Amino acid sequence: MDQALLTFHNQLAEEVQVFYTSDYCYKCVYQHLVSVKPNNRNVSVVISTKFTLTVQVESQPRNVTLCRWSQTYGEVGHYSVWIHMSEETSNSSCTHTVDKRPNNAYLPLLVAALLLAIITLLFVLGPYVSRRHYTSKFIKTICCQGPQYSLDNDKAHACEAEQNTVKAKPTRLRSLDTFRGFALTVMVFVNYGGGGYWFFQHAPWNGLTVADLVMPWFVFIIGTSVVLAFRSMQRRGFSHLQLLRKITWRTAVLMMLGFCFLNYSPRDGPLSWSWLRIPGVLQRLGFTYFVLSLLQTFWGQKEIPLKMYHWWNPIQDVVLYWPQWLIIILLETLWLCITFLMPVPNCPTGYLGAGGIGDNGLHPNCTGGAAGYIDRWMFGDNMYRYPTCKDMYHTTQPFDPEGVLGTINSVVMGFLGMQGGKIIISYKGMNFHILCRFLAWTVLLGISAAILSKCTRDGGFIPVNKNLWSLSYVTCMGCFSFLLLGAMYFVIDIKGWWGGQPFIYPGMNSTFVYVGHSLLGFYFPFSWEMAFQASHWEWLFQSLWGTSLWVLISYFLYRKKFFLKI
Question: Which of 32, 84, 157, 202 is catalytic?
Fold first, then answer.
């Protein structure tokens, strides 16, 4: 899978050397692929089909480049390259032929998307069809909605009381639960392999894939939830001490879950000290939650003062929280200063590259720049040992994507989520204003990301990089988050066109699903030893199957009203 066979036929009278590099690898040194003996010798080699490859053929005795080309090869395809003398130019040339046509690697994905679309359509049309067989529900609805003129006053008053109770019941922001569930469902899918497709895995270094979108969405949702939940508790009279107890307890539980879980191994047991890792996803989420909760506890607003007109009313969701903004600006200034001004031994100041063979191989031990240096100084080997850049960039230094320096920008990302919650609170009942502000933040953050990255993957001032949680990555993810939450808020909470199913179910039991899918993902029935590993079909089926099981489990827990809360 994701491989092709490339055969070189050397018809020259001299030996040739073949080198290659991936076009996704930024300024990478060419790597040796194969040597081909002279006089009609041939050598076959397996190559990757994930990214476009640049291949270069050189004459060994003369050290001259004979030919060079860039091509994206197809999965399971067989290709031949004939190295010979051109009769027209009397120079060496390379001719390409296809010996076996490649498979369509995206056919399984297309079939899966079509089946999911059909299932979605059935779930949408199902309720309308079933209503014809349950006319009693219509009668009950009519009874409770229209004016009642019944001789049985007790029944009439009971029906009216039931209607008033429903109206008085506080509504939950279903779009936020749906957004959380959607992010969690995508996370489960990519953690279960994503069908083996490279774009469902994390980017090697700079750039974005589907897997890189998920965690910032979670952090954004944490910020929004903090504002909505803490305002409710503050209005109910919770003291600062009570809030601090709740914050500390939840943070400690999240960090302990993350520490024990991330060091879990089916071979070593719950605490796998053989591959101890101190940073982690839940640890970062817990710390981010702690900082955001402190901001909202001490500098939040219990009530929005709108009794008289002030010049800042149109931007009250920003001005009323100026102490929070000041702290966030100071934190981001700290990140910028450490990232671009901190001296790192034997590395350029402000280096943001992957090291290894990247950047022409000049900085092999500088993976992550200041961020990597700080983590290696603090944690030593107790950090992530297989960073996403290891295979492509041939790095030797450990690098943790949940390191210390990136946590600062995780707080900034969560604060953008808090801004979304403030907009919902400040302009409650004014849906047009809420949507306009969501759109304004989407445009502002999108423009910021475009400027910082220069709309390129590697050539910007600050490239979009999930491993570093760079500033451009935060602004880009903030843009997507405001856009998605605003769209779901419009469709679910304003128009009521969609109830959020099925994503709302895992969204309301996110801790249970996240921990459960991680601990049980290697066991049946969530996964099994695949018999057909040469294609994406079984791998994609397994990823979708495991994800669907967790959505189904969360649905049953929802029906049983079981919600794991910390």
Answer: 202
